[in-house]
Structure formats: structure tokens, C-alpha cells
What we know:
Blueprint: H1 11-18, H2 24-36, H3 38-57, H4 65-76, H5 95-101, E1 111-114, E2 117-125, E3 128-135, E4 144-146, E5 150-156, E6 159-161, E7 164-166, E8 171-174, E9 183-184, E10 190-196, E11 200-202, H6 205-214
Antiparallel strand pairs: 1-2, 2-3, 3-10, 4-11, 5-8, 5-10, 6-7, 6-9
The structure holds zinc ion.
Amino acid sequence: MTIEPKHxxxxxxxxxxxxxxxxxxxxxxxxxxxxxxxxxxxxLDGFESxxxxxLDEMDxxxxxxxxxxxxxxxIEGVEPEPREIRLRSDAVLPEPVQKLVGxxxxxxxxxxxxxxxxxxxxxxxxxxxxxxxxxxxxxxMPRHTHRGLEMTLVLQGAYSDEDGRYxxxxxxxxxxxxxxxxxxxxxxxxxxxxxxxxxxxFDGLLPRIAQPFIGI
Length: 216
Ligand code: ZN
């Protein structure tokens, strides 16, 4: 059973991804979304072939060594595979996440952050953090807005917020203008892959107090 995502990534962000302009944390989310969305895959293929044609026309000397490395890394995938993992196409986790976790959901090392919510940080550097978040069925994330960019990709279950309903493969891109309290649907826990490049801004006092310990 394959349900195609309804919320796909914008052309603008896909082009940035194709050009290698996104930081690693966001790369992981976009690569995962593309692996679950035929629509985004087709658009990305288009941008990558345009990018390839541009690279062909440029003199190799014009390319900074670093950008060439990045372009090559882009062709090879998100990250070099550190160890041999048997990737499963029927897994809950998309392949880019399976590579980082070392398997499917059973291999995730969750850390409880209260109210039954759990997280597992997959990548963290100066430019952003990518984490898996587990929200129990019916659970609600404290209402917040964002100091930077937040990309959320649903891997299991579904959540709703002020902007709509998001199910497997759907991506929500939120910025400073988005004020929301994502709530997991009843019946099944919601597992999301989230990338952020700045701390969230919570409305409530309790989440603000807990924030330094959770790192969100
Ligand atoms: Zn948010």
C-alpha cells in the first residue's frame, strides 16, 4: 500500500538541495522526503539534469575545489556509508535514515524528553540538527514558533496543526511566520524526522524551562 504524499517540498528548496546549498541536517530530510514522494523525485531529477548540463559547460578551473567535492558528494548520496547495512525497501525509515540509524525503527536509540515524547539526534553541527521525534498517539507538541527554518517529514502515523494534516512522506516547512502546536493523530504514534537550524520559541513556561535539557 503506497499513499502518495500530499504536502511536497517547494521547487525552491529542491533546487537548493540539488545545488548542494543546504546544510547536512536539511539534506537528510530532503533526501528522505524525495525517497517517499514520486512527485518530488521527478522534479528533483529535472533540476539535477539542468545542474549537470551547467557543470558540463563550466570550465573545471572555474569550479572551486570545494564545490566540486560537494557536487560529487551530491551524486554519491547524502553521506558516505560507514558500515555495511542491509537497506530494506519495506522499512518505516527511508534509506538515508536507515544508514544513519544502522537499521529500521528497532535500531533507534530513543531518549525520553517527557510526556511520552522521545527523540534521537541523528546529526548535529553548527548549521543545523536532524532528529527523529516520537510523539505518542494523540500527543501534542507545545505551541511554538521558530527562530529559523524547521523541516518536518512524517515517517509513521500522522499529525495535524494549524496548517493542515501531515501523513507519511508529507513535509512541512515552517519559519518565523509559523506558529503551531502539532498534534499526533489518535490510534498510532507519530514518528517524524525534523531538521532545525535554530532553537524553537515556545509559548509556555514549562517547555522553555525544559528546553536547555532537551536541546530543541
Ligand atoms: Zn515547529
